[in-house]
Amino acid sequence: MLEKSKIKAKHIQSYGQSEYLWIVDDVNGDGRMYCIKLWDGIEVIYNDFHCFDLPECTYTTDAYLEINHCRQGKFECPYDAHHLAYLDVGDFSVSSWLLDRGRARLSLGYYQGVEVLIDVAKASLLDIFDQFAIDINDLYRRLRLSHHLYIERANETICHLFSQMYDLPLGIRQHYLQIKVLELLLFLSQTAFEQVAENKVYYPKQVIEALERFRQEMIHDLSSRPDYNALAKKHSFSLSTVRRLFKEIYGMPLYQWYKHYRLTYSQLLLKTTDASIIEIAGKVGYTNPSKFAAAFQQETGLTPQQYRQLYAKMD
Length: 315
What we know:
This protein is 41% helix and 25% strand. The chain is an alpha+beta fold.
């Protein structure tokens, strides 16, 4: 069903009649979606992305429901023309393809989670839902009355619903997922979507766009240390506000995030270039290669040389 989303595929690999891997094109990084067909019109998708910007999708105007659970990372999407909402670790969302998403982003540069994609017209014809009093059309109708988006914060119930959908044995995976999707849809049948405003924190789009410009300038030249105060002032923030927002949006303190980003970028350089370790250290702001090696090993558990050799063997 992913072809309906107009998400460009770099490669599609089929595994039998009911499973396929969709390797996403148009991402500055890596994006993989492993899809398992459960019934006609319903698929479970395991999303694994390592990038900041997701490809812009042109969704069909047909009725589709999309249920997402965040296992790792942080997902940013528009709530309306002036606000953004976030899906954090353990949260789940229900949305329709009529939601104007624009170009969604991954605040931390990575995201893993499970998704249930439902073609409302096809799924509403499935006899199995009648046995459990599940009305797909009513779910879709109620969601449309709630701005096409419902988000619930992580809690014990959500953990129970989704945690067992990961890392399943191959022999039982499809049938087990059918049971879990039935359980999830029964739960949603009793969920008041109109309570979305109480369940989620939204951020003004203008503020987030300014923070993103701050972030882009901060990482523009990793070889030199940024002037945080000057950058904050340039984008009409106080440094204390930037630090608070960074922790809320990007999941870690400003200075810690910057260090993490530099080391993550150094991993990319080690994998994709022939630059020496001393050169790479300089490119990410370390004038002392020994300090770079120590920070890198603390981050990854490997020295830069070991990391490069490991990925050379994998290739």
